[in-house]
Amino acid sequence: MELDGAQRGGHVLIVGAGPTGLTAALLLARLGVACTVVERHAGIHPLPRGVHLDDEGVRILQRAGVAAFGDISRPAAGLRLLDAKLRPFAEFRRDRVVGEHGHPESNLFDQPDLERLLRTELTRHPSVRLREEVEVTGIGPPDGRPVLVALRDTRTGAREQVGADAVLGCDGAGSAVRDAIGATLRDLRFTERWFVLDARCSRPPSTWGGVDQVCDPRRAATFLPLPGDRCRWEFRMRSGETATDLARPERLAALTAPWGVPAGGLEVLRAAEYTFRARLADRWRHGRVLLLGDAAHLTPPFIGQGLGAGLRDAHNLAWKLAAVLRGADEDALLDSYQAERAPHAEAVIRGAVRVGRAMTGGQDIAAALRRPLTGLLLRVPGVRAAAQRGISTRYAPGPLVERRRHRRDLTGTPCPQPTVRVDGRSVRLDEVLGDGYALLATGPVAPDLQATAQRLGAPTLRLGPGPADTVLDDGGELRTWLAGGRAAAALVRPDRIVQATAPG
C-alpha cells in the first residue's frame, strides 16, 4: 500500500518517536507535509535520559509549536568544575534568562515530560499519525519513487509494505535505517563506561543552580539538580565494576555522601551503566532516506549537546525536504543537509571529548597538572568565549550559505530572536518571520540581494524607516547584531540561518 499524502506536501515516514523524530514531524506538519511516525515500543519511555537543552534547542521547540517547555524545565546557571573535595576552580556562566535565541541559555528537564509535550502537540495536527509497536524490517531502494518500507507489528507479527516520499531515520544509536542505507559509524576515539543514577531526594542538596563536573582522577563525576526533587549523578566506572555492585545501598551512600545525601534519602528511579561514545555516520543520506539525531551521531554528554544536536538536524532538514516534495532541486537541497550538519556535529562531539578528557581523563602526572591549568585558562573571558564559539552553529559556505565577505560576516550563523513590537504587539521574532525566508534590513538593500529575496518569496522586515512589508521595533538588538557583522541587511532562511548579507 502507499501512504496517503498531503495534497501539497507529500508524505514522510519517520522511524522513531523520540524528541528528534517527533520534532521533525511537527516541523514538517507546519509546512504542509503529512507524516507517519512509527515506534517499535509502546508509550513514552518512562526513564530519564536527556536532561539539558540550550536556548537554541528551546527555540526549535518553539518553532515546532511546543509553547509549554518552560512549565516542565528550569533554567540552569551553567557549569562549574570542582576538584576532588567538591571545591570549584572554574565556572562557565550560562544564566541569562533571555539568551540570544529568546529563551534561558541553559535548561534542565526530564525527557519523558518533553516527549509528553511533543505528543500532545502532535495530536493537534490531523496530518500526522503515530503508530506504536511497529518496527522497520527493510527498506527498498532508497532512491525509489516511492521509497518502499517493510513494517512489522511487534504485537501480532503482521507484516506490511508501505510507500513514502521520504524516510527519516530517527531511531537512535542502533538505527535500523542506518543499516538499511549501508552507513557506518566512524569512531572519534572516545569510549567510557559510566554509572548513571537518577533519583528523587527527600532533601535535595543545596546547589548553586547549575551543573557540577567533578574533576577527580579517582572518580570523575557529574551532578545535575533537575526540576522538583529530582537529581542526576553520573560516575565514571572503574575497571571491573558493575552497575549492580554500585547500586547496592552502601555503595550508593558512599557515592552521594559528598553532596550530603545518604542512600536512605534517595528514591532510585534508575541506576544503570551507560557507555559514552563519540561516533559520526559516514553517510547521512541515500536517495530520500536520511538519518537524524543519534542515528547520525553520538556524543558524550559532558557539554549537554546530544539532544540539541538532533533538534538542529530536524530544523535544518525539515524545510529543505518540504521544498523538495514541492518540486525544488532535490540533490542541491538534500545534499546540503549532511554538508552543513555533519561538520557542526563533529565539532560538538570533539568539543565534548576534549572536555571529557581534560576534566576526567587520565591519572598520570600530566593529567593532574592539566586540570588546574584548564581551570585557570577558563577564568579568562576570551578563552571562555572561544570555547563557546567552537560549538556554536556556523555553517560553511555552500549552495545555501553565501561566501563570507569578511571574518565577522554573519552568513552561516543563526539570527538572534529578540522580542519585537509589530502592529502594537510584543512577540518573539520568529512569530513574525513565519515559516519561510525573510529579509531583515536597516537601510537600502543591494539589488542582487533584493532580487534573491523576491525570488524566494521573502518579505522585507525593516528596522527603521523605508519601504517594507513589516516594520519592527526590537529596542536595537537586531540593529546591533547587523552592525556587528558590518551588514545593512540579512537574508534569513526558514531555519533562521543567515544565507546572505548586504554590506552596511
Overview of this protein structure:
By secondary structure, the chain is an alpha/beta fold. Among the domains are: 212 residues, FAD/NAD(P)-binding domain; 85 residues. The protein is 30% helix and 28% strand. It contains 14 helices and 27 strands. The strands form 6 sheets. The chain has an 8-stranded mixed β-sheet with strand order 6-5-14-15-16-13-17-20. A 6-stranded mixed β-sheet has the order 8-2-1-12-19-18.
**CATH T-level topology of the domain at 11-73 and 108-186 and 280-349:** FAD/NAD(P)-binding domain
Q: Can you tell me the residue ranges where pLDDT is under 50 for at least 5 consecutive residues?
A: 1-8, 362-366, 380-384
CATH superfamily of the domain at 11-73 and 108-186 and 280-349: FAD/NAD(P)-binding domain
Oligomerization status of the protein chains: single chain
Shape: globular
The CATH class label of the domain at 11-73 and 108-186 and 280-349 is: Alpha Beta
Helix content: 25-40%
